[in-house]
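Re: How this chain folds, sequence and tokenised backbone to follow
Notation: Tokens come from a learned vocabulary of local backbone shapes, not from coordinates.
Start of record: The labelled sequence and token lines come straight after this line.
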Amino acid sequence: MQELAGDAAGLSALVAQFDLSLAEELARLDDDVTQSNAAEFALHLHALKGFVPLFSKSDLAQQIVALYAHCRQSPWNDTLRDWVQLRPRLLSLQQEVRTARQGL
């Protein structure tokens, strides 16, 4: 990200892509939950695990990594419990990104 410090258009494009990717993965994860599809849920969570740390220095990225590891080994109901706690934080990040986009 530091490379984009002087490139407003590049930074704007990167943030826009993050916003789009986050929205897509959240929708996919919600669909996976609705369909009780643990394998696809793990796949889509893996995608979040890959790009959220680029935009969030909070413990959110660590929580995603932990849930990803947990969802591959634990009962679906345990994964859902943890997802219900994590999802609002991801929605909050999404809102922060959208607010930041307006300022770019």
The chain is about 75% helix and 0% strand. Helices lie at 8-34, 38-51, 60-71, 76-102. The chain has a mean pLDDT of 90. The longest helix spans residues 8-34.
